[in-house]
Amino acid sequence: MYHGSNALFDRPDLGLGRNRRDFGSGFYTTTLRSQAEDWARSVTERFGGEAYLYVFEFDLADDLSVQAFSGISLEWLDMVKANRMRGGVQHDFDVVIGPVANDNTVRTVSLYVAGVYDAEEAMRRLRYFKANDQVSIHTKRAMARLELKGREHV
Fold it and tell me: What is the pLDDT of residues 101-146, one digit of tens each?
């Protein structure tokens, strides 16, 4: 798992995550190195600091509560809407895996959240997008399964 950041740390802190994210407040990673590198550069450009790529090993044990979306779906869209509108964490999962509402999809997702598009229209507009993945961790129990393997400047 990879994480891009503008902060130097040895252990991620759930309390430092930004609010109103796709799957709620949490620690976000991806299986795509290039995506994490892009995240690191982007957050550094916006907020300063230095760009870091973190490499983690994650034990996705059977006793964790996991919601995995295989792609963009109405269920995924509704979770993104709930977390972006209400903030915090609007679910009971330890881990959520699924597509990123990225630059290609965020306009449609934002218009759905705002009520401009209904679910049918949003899904019609999103059906051809291939989104990158994200793995978000929301509980201390799941964070305990995350092991830092390395860190490097991007």
Answer: 776 788 898 899 899 999 999 999 998 888 889 999 999 999 999 9
pLDDT tens digit string along 48-105?
999 999 999 999 989 999 999 999 999 999 999 999 889 999 999 999 999 987 767 8
> Is the Cα torsion angle 12, 36, 141, 144 positive or negative in sign?
negative
Burial of 103 (0-12, 13-18, 19+ CB in 10 A): exposed
Q: What single string gives the DSSP state of each residue in 41-63?
A: HHHHHHH-S--EEEEEEE---TT
How would you classify the pairing of strands 27-29 and 146-153?
A: unpaired
Q: Is residue 101 within 8 Å of residue 131, measured between CB atoms?
A: yes
CA dihedral sign of residues 30, 32, 36, 38: negative
Strands 133-137 and 95-99: antiparallel
Tokens 């990123």 -> residue? 100
